Amino acid sequence: MTCYRHPGREAYVRCQRCERVICPECQVEASVGFLCPECAGGTPTQISAARRRAARLASAGARPTVSISLIVINAIVWLLQVLPNSVVTEQLVFSPLSFALEPWRALTAGFAHSPDNFLHLALNMYSLYVFGQVLEPMLGKARFLAMYLISVLGGSAAVMWLSSMVGYTLGASGAVFGLMGAYFVIARKLGAQSGQLVGLIAINLAFGFFMPGISWQAHVGGLAAGCLVALLYVNTRQLNQKTQQLLGLVGIFALVVGVMYAGLFLRVFPALGL
Asked: What residues does each domain of the chain span?
């Protein structure tokens, strides 16, 4: 595909409104994705700002810095986990019972991986990079990070209701499934082919159901949370909808946290006789 304004330039991004293909020089950032100069209003200020931003992105290689930072954090945590006599894993993992006294574990568990299985870390980080390098430039760093963290919490929320109360979970796979779900929602909105992605999600979900030691609950919860955040993004992508988008994010966060506390009061406490 080539840019509609620069036929000699290869491009892969479509305008969110008219769906014309646009190169980095022609991309005007919107709440989700990009607009062409005409759909953005076509003012010289907007186009100039878009070109300056595109030039900065091009010079930096449009690197997904948030995704890379998350990968580095996960790698550092894993190195701390494998140290002799390390107690890092025990301090970060999540279980429904642990949520009562240490609710922050619902988030920290998403940054810990099995210290005995490097592939657990490697596969999750590879998937994070693959989807992150597409979604982060498209959504923006802050929106991408918010979606990632909410997906981690979504996985923990599902664990609160569906997992054993004493078994612990850890790993970034809930967040990775959130990115998969978000990519699917956005691809559908853009009219892109998504059949292969559906197959990929289905296969990975199936592994969780049939292979021991994998938390399918976290996968399902993360997938649902990522899809929900992406639906919010694609329906509040106009420049005048930033406040609605922010309030929507706060609402989704509150919903996920509320689901976890509902699990605590309606499932965990009754099982303990409290």
From this structure: 13-60, 65-271
- Domain covering 65-271 assigned CATH 1.10.10.10 in the classification: no
Q: Cα separation of 130 and 56, whole Å? A: 22
Structure-block tokens of residue 193 = 């082919």
Q: What is the pTM of this model?
A: 0.77
Start-to-end CA span in the chain (Å): 62
Q: Which residues have a Cβ under 8 Å from the Cβ of 192 and sit 6 or more positions away?
A: none
What are the residues facing 14 on neighbouring strands? 21
Q: Is 42 exposed, middle or buried (0-12, 13-18, 19+ CB in 10 A)?
A: exposed
Summarised one tens digit per residue, pLDDT across range 173-193 is: 999 999 999 999 988 887 767
Which residue in the list 67, 127, 151, 173 is annotated as catalytic?
173
Residues 50/36, Cβ–Cβ less than 8 Å: no
**Nearest alpha carbon to residue 154 among 221, 104, 230, 107:** 221
Query: How many Å apart are CA 153 and CA 150, to the nearest integer?
Result: 5
Active site residue 173: yes
Instruction: Record the tokens describing residue 9, joined without a space.
Output: 């330039």
Separation between Cα atoms, residue 121 and residue 114, nearest integer Å: 7
